[in-house]
Design goal:
Shape: elongated
Number of strands: 7
Low-confidence stretches: 1-5, 160-167, 510-519, 926-938
Strand content: under 5%
Structural class: mainly alpha
Number of helices: 46
Strand order of the largest sheet: 2-3-4-1-5
Helix content: 55-70%
C-alpha cells in the first residue's frame, strides 16, 4: 500500500509541502482536500503527518465520526487531548473560561506553536459536531502570524431522507467553515498510467494496455476501487498479466458493496435496496421504477437517489440514474442472490413493457429474468434474437432464444429451435446437429418450415464428416415429401439436394432414391430450391469434367442467390468457390471466398470463418502462394470447431493443404507430422480422404518413397472414380501416378494414364489442368517431343498463374535442355524457375533448381536474406498494416489470421529489416526504402 495514494497526486503533494513550508516560515496556512469515497483523502492526510513529524513539527490529528456528530466538542476534545500531551500534561498559563472553549483551545494551540511549528490534521469534516466547527472557524480567523498548518478533508455528507430538511446551515455547517480555507483542492481518480503501474507491480510483469484501460474505466481510477479490484484478482486466482478487458467487466468485489452499505446503513436503511435496484437497471434507472422495485414512495426514492449522486456513487443522466463506476455496479450485483437478481429483472421487464419502453431495453432484462409466463415475453425475445444475429452477437442471441423457448408459445418452438441451431452451427457442427434434429422433429412433415430446417441439418451433418448420415436423413425426407403430397417445387429442391449428397458420398444419384429428375413448368419461386438445383447442376458438370461453361453458369447462379445469414448454404457456397478456382476463375474465386469470410467474421460464425480459411488455403496453394496457404490452413485448424471424436470437414481439408505446403516450403518434418503421422483415421471425413491421399502421396514420392506414394495416389484415383469425379482439375492423380509408374519401370501403365489425363484436361479446358497433364506427358515422351511438350506446359501454366507448377515445369524443361547440351536455354529456364520458386517460398524446389543451375555451369544468385526484398508477401502485408498503426489484434482481424501469426511475421520483419520496433516500419513505409511498399494491403 505504501505510496498508492501518492500516484497521480503531484499537485496535491506540492500543495501540502507549500502549507508546511509556510508554517515553518511563521505564516499560517490552511488546505482542504475534498473528494468522494475512496479517493485517498485520508492517505494524503497521513502522508502529511509523516512528513511534518520528520521536519520537527508537532503533529496533531483528529477524525470526526458519524456516530459522534451529535456529541458536542467531540472533535475539539481529540485535539485538546493531544495538545495537552505536547505541553507536558499541563494547560498553559493564561485566561481560561468555561463560556468560550474555542478561545481556550486556541490559547493552547498558540502555546504549542511557540515551541515548534504545528500541523493540525482533521479528517472527515462532514461529520464534525457544531461546536467543533465553530472552533475551527475561530482558529482559521487567527491563523495569520502563527507557525501553524491546518489540513482537513471533506467527503460526502449522506443524510437520511427524513433529515434532509434539517441539514445544518449557517456557521454550524461544514460549508460555512470550509469556505475560509486558504486553498481547496478536489481529488480526482488515478490516471491510466498509475493504474497500469499498480497492476504491473502486483503481477511483476507488464499488463496488456487494453486490460489496463478496462480496469481504469471500471474503477474510474478510484484508489479504493483499484485496491479492491487487485484483491479480487488475488482471491479469484487471476494474474493481472493474464487479465483481459472482458474478464475485468465480470469482476465484482463483494467488499465494495459491503463497505458502501455499511457507510450508508446508519443514515438510511433504504440505501442498499435502492443501489441494488439501480444495479439491475444499468444506466437507465428512473425514479418511479426504482420506487416500485424497492416498494417505497417516489419521494423517498428520489431523495435517496439524489443523495447518492451527491456522494459520487451514482450519476444522473437523461435516461435515468446509473453508477459512476462499473465496478461498483458489478459489486452490488455480485452481492445479490441469483434468485433475487432474476426476480428484479423480471419485475423490471414487466414495468418497462407496461410503459411501452424500447424493445432492446426490455430484452436485456428478459435475458436474465425469472420466467414471466406471458406471450409477449416470448415474442419479444425472438425479435431480440434476430436483431442480435444481424449484429453478430451470437452469445446474446443464444440467451434470448433459450429464454424464448421457456416463455414462447409451443407453435413458435420450431422457429426458435432453428435459429438456435444456426447459432450452434456458428460454434461447431456437433452441437448444431442435436438442436436441428430436434427442430426437424417439431415441424410438420412436408412444410416449408421443415424444408428450411432440413437444409440446415444436412449441412451440419456433412460438416461433421458424416455424408452418409446426411444422405440417410435426406432420403427419408424425400420419401416423406412424396407421401405428404408436398408441392412439386419443394420436392424438386429436396431431390436436387439429395442428388448432390449422393455424389459427395461416392454414389451416383439413383432414381429409386432420388425419384425422377425434376421437370418444373416454371422457374422455382423459392430461393433455396433455385440454389439447390443450380448447385447440383454446377457440381455435376464440374465432377464430370466436360461442361466447364455450364458448371460456371450454374455456380454463379447459385452463388448469387440471396441468403439471410452467413451460415445459410455456407458449405455448398464454399464448395462452389472451389469450382470457380478449378474452372480457371481464380480471382473471382478469391473475391467470393473473401466476401464469405468477411460475412462469417461479421456474424461471429467460427465455423464459416474456419471453412472459408480452408478454401482460401486451397486457392493460395493452387496459385503457388505457400506462405498464405500455411497461414490460412493453420488459422482454419486452430480457430475452427474442435471435436474430441472426429475431425470436422474444414480441418481435414486444411490439414492436407498444410502438409504439402510445409513440405514444399522446406519443412519435411512438419509435413510428416501433419500428414504422415496423423494419416487418414476412421474419424476423417470420407469426402476429403481423396485429397489427403493425394497430398500424402506427393510427399512420399518427393521423399523418394515412390511405391508408398503411388499406392496413395492410386487409392485417391479409385475413390474419385467411385464418386464419379472424373475431372483432373480436382486432383491430377493420373499425372502423378504416371510419373511414379515410370520411375518404377511400368512405361505402359504410365503412358496409358498420362494420355487419359491429357484427353480429360483438353475436355475441361483450363490452363492449369492442361499444363499439368502436358508436363507429365513431356517427361514421359522421347526425343524432341519432350522439349515441345514441356515448353507448351510452361506456357499453359504461366497463363494459369500457377507459379509453383510453372517453376516445376521450367526445371524439367531446363534439365531437358541441359541433356540436349543446350546450356544457354537450360540456364534461362532454371533461372526463371528459381525466381518463381523464391516468390512462392518453395525452398525444397529452390534447392533442386540451384543444384541444377550449378550442373549447368552457372553460379546461382544468392537469395535475399535481409532487406525489403527478403520479405514474403505475408510478411510484407503485415509490415504495411503495422506501419499504418494497427495493433496486432487489428492486423489479425484484417488478414484473417491468428494474433500469434502476426507476432511471428513481425519478428521476422524486424530481423530482416534490421529494426527493433514499429517506428522503423514507419520510416521504411514513409519512403526511405521504397521496395517495402510495392504491394497494397487493401
Amino acid at each position: 500500500m505504501e505510496g498508492v495514494a501518492l500516484l497521480s497526486r503531484h499537485c496535491e503533494v506540492s500543495f501540502l509541502e507549500e502549507a508546511l513550508a509556510a508554517a515553518e516560515a511563521g505564516m499560517g496556512a490552511s488546505l482542504l482536500l475534498e473528494g468522494g469515497i475512496g479517493t485517498g483523502k485520508s492517505y494524503l492526510l497521513r502522508a502529511a503527518l509523516r512528513s511534518a513529524r520528520s521536519r520537527g513539527f508537532e503533529a496533531i490529528s483528529a477524525r470526526a465520526r458519524q456516530s459522534e456528530r451529535a456529541v458536542p466538542h467531540s472533535l475539539m476534545y481529540q485535539v485538546r487531548d493531544q495538545l495537552l500531551g505536547a505541553l507536558g500534561g499541563k494547560e498553559p498559563p493564561g485566561p481560561a473560561t468555561q463560556q468560550d472553549p474555542s478561545a481556550d483551545l486556541h490559547h493552547m494551540v498558540a502555546s504549542c506553536a511557540a515551541a515548534a511549528p504545528v500541523l493540525i490534521a482533521l479528517d472527515d469534516l462532514q461529520w464534525a459536531d457544531a461546536p467543533s466547527l465553530r472552533w475551527l472557524g475561530h482558529l482559521m480567523a487567527r491563523l495569520e502570524g502563527l507557525p501553524l498548518a491546518l489540513l482537513a478533508t471533506l467527503g460526502c455528507d449522506f443524510a437520511a431522507p427524513s433529515d434532509l430538511v434539517t441539514r445544518r446551515s449557517g456557521m454550524d455547517s461544514p460549508a460555512a467553515v470550509t469556505s475560509g480555507f486558504h486553498r481547496r483542492t478536489v481529488l480526482q481518480g488515478l490516471n491510466v498510467d498509475s493504474v497500469g503501474y499498480l497492476l504491473a507491480s502486483a503481477s511483476g510483469t507488464p499488463v496488456d494496455p487494453g486490460a489496463v484501460g478496462a480496469c481504469h474505466e471500471a474503477t474510474g481510477g478510484n484508489p479504493l476501487l483499484v485496491q479492491a479490484l487487485l484483491r479480487e484478482l488475488w482471491r479469484t486466482g487471476v494474474s493481472p498479466a493474464d487479465l483481459s478487458a472482458g474478464r475485468v467487466a465480470e469482476l465484482g468485489p463483494l467488499e465494495v458493496a459491503e463497505e458502501l452499505g455499511a457507510r450508508f446503513e446508519e443514515a438510511s436503511p433504504l440505501a442498499g435496496p435502492v443501489l441494488e435496484a439501480v444495479s439491475i437497471m444499468e444506466a437507465a434507472a428512473r425514479i418511479e421504477i426504482v420506487a416500485e422495485l424497492v416498494d417505497i414512495d417516489t419521494v423517498s426514492a428520489a431523495d435517496v437517489l439524489h443523495e447518492m449522486v451527491r456522494c459520487g456513487v451514482l450519476t444522473a443522466g437523461p435516461d435515468g440514474f446509473g453508477f459512476c463506476h462499473p465496478l461498483v455496479r458489478a459489486s452490488f450485483q455480485a452481492g445479490m442472490a441469483p434468485s433475487e437478481r432474476a426476480r428484479l429483472h423480471a419485475e423490471t421487464a414487466k414495468i418497462l413493457n407496461a410503459d411501452a419502453a424500447p424493445r432492446e431495453q426490455i430484452a436485456r432484462h428478459l435475458m436474465h429474468s425469472a420466467m414471466i409466463g406471458e406471450p409477449w415475453a416470448g415474442r419479444l425475445l425472438l425479435d431480440a434474437a434476430d436483431e442480435a444475429l444481424a449484429r453478430g452477437a451470437l452469445r446474446e442471441a443464444r440467451i434470448c432464444l433459450e429464454r424464448g423457448l421457456l416463455e414462447g408459445d409451443p407453435a413458435d418452438e420450431p422457429r426458435l429451435l432453428r435459429r438456435l441451431g444456426q447459432i450452434d452451427l456458428a460454434d461447431g457442427p456437433d452441437r448444431a446437429v442435436v438442436t436441428l434434429r430436434r427442430t426437424v422433429g417439431r415441424t410438420p412433415e412436408g412444410s416449408e418450415q421443415r424444408a428450411g430446417a432440413l437444409l440446415d441439418l444436412v449441412q451440419a451433418v456433412v460438416l461433421t464428416g458424416d455424408v452418409t448420415g446426411a444422405v440417410r436423413i435426406m432420403e427419408a425426407e424425400v420419401a416423406g415429401f412424396e407421401r405428404s403430397g408436398t408441392d412439386e417445387e419443394t420436392k424438386a429442391g429436396a431431390r436436387a439436394m439429395l442428388g448432390l449428397l449422393l455424389s459427395l458420398d461416392g454414389r451416383a444419384p439413383r432414381p429409386a432414391a432420388g425419384g425422377k429428375p425434376a421437370v418444373l413448368s416454371a422457374a422455382p419461386a423459392r430461393s433455396w430450391v433455385r440454389h439447390a438445383m443450380a448447385a447440383r447442376s454446377a457440381l455435376h458438370a464440374h465432377w464430370d469434367g466436360v461442361h466447364r461453361a455450364e458448371a460456371l453458369r450454374h455456380a454463379r447462379l447459385a452463388l448469387h442467390e440471396p441468403v439471410a445469414t452467413a451460415n445459410e448454404h455456407a458449405l455448398v457456397r464454399l464448395v462452389l468457390v472451389l469450382l470457380l478456382d478449378r474452372a480457371g476463375e481464380h480471382d473471382e474465386a478469391v473475391r467470393t471466398c473473401r466476401s464469405l469470410l468477411e460475412a462469417g467474421t461479421a456474424e461471429g460464425s467460427r465455423t464459416v470463418v474456419a471453412l472459408a480459411q480452408a478454401i482460401m488455403a486451397d486457392c493460395a496453394f493452387r496459385a503457388g502462394r505457400l506462405s498464405e496457404c500455411v497461414e490460412a490452413a493453420r488459422a482454419s485448424m486452430e480457430q475452427g470447431p474442435q471435436s474430441a471424436l472426429t475431425e470436422w470437414l474444414g480441418s481435414a481439408l486444411a490439414r492436407g493443404l498444410l502438409g504439402e505446403a510445409l513440405y514444399e516450403s522446406g519443412d519435411p518434418e512438419g509435413a510428416h507430422r501433419v500428414l504422415i503421422e496423423e494419416g487418414t483415421a476412421d474419424g476423417t471425413p470420407a469426402a476429403v480422404v481423396p485429397g489427403l491421399l493425394f497430398h500424402r502421396g506427393r510427399i512420399h514420392i518427393g521423399a523418394g518413397r515412390t511405391a508408398l506414394g503411388l499406392a496413395d495416389i492410386e487409392e485417391c484415383g479409385r475413390l474419385m472414380k467411385m464418386r464419379g469425379w472424373v475431372n483432373p482439375a480436382l486432383y491430377p492423380w493420373r499425372s502423378e501416378a504416371a510419373l511414379a509408374h515410370a520411375r518404377l519401370g511400368n512405361e505402359a501403365g504410365a503412358q496409358r494414364l498420362v494420355q487419359e489425363e491429357l484427353t480429360l484436361a483438353r475436355a475441361w479446358g483450363t490452363s492449369r489442368a492442361l499444363g499439368t497433364a502436358l508436363r507429365a506427358a513431356g517427361l514421359l515422351a522421347r526425343g524432341d517431343e519432350r522439349v515441345s511438350l514441356l515448353t507448351e506446359s510452361v506456357q499453359w501454366l504461366h497463363t494459369a498463374g500457377a507459379e509453383l507448377d510453372e517453376a516445376r515445369a521450367q526445371r524439367d524443361l531446363g534439365r531437358e535442355y541441359l541433356r540436349c547440351r543446350k546450356v544457354r536455354q537450360a540456364r534461362e529456364q532454371l533461372r526463371a524457375g528459381i525466381a518463381l520458386a523464391e516468390r512462392c517460398g518453395a525452398h525444397t524446389l529452390l534447392r533442386e533448381l540451384r543444384q541444377d543451375l550449378v550442373e549447368a555451369g552457372a553460379r546461382p544468385r544468392r537469395g535475399a536474406e535481409t532487406g525489403p526484398g527478403s520479405l514474403t508477401p505475408a510478411e510484407r502485408r503485415t509490415a504495411l498494416l503495422a506501419a499504418e498503426g494497427l495493433t496486432n489484434k487489428a492486423i489479425a482481424n484484417r488478414l484473417f489470421v491468428t494474433r500469434r501469426t502476426v507476432e511471428m511475421h513481425l519478428s521476422r520483419v524486424y530481423r530482416k529489416l534490421s529494426i527493433t520496433d514499429r517506428r522503423g516500419l514507419h520510416a521504411m513505409a514513409g519512403g526511405q526504402d521504397p521496395p517495402l511498399v510495392v504491394e497494397s494491403c487493401a
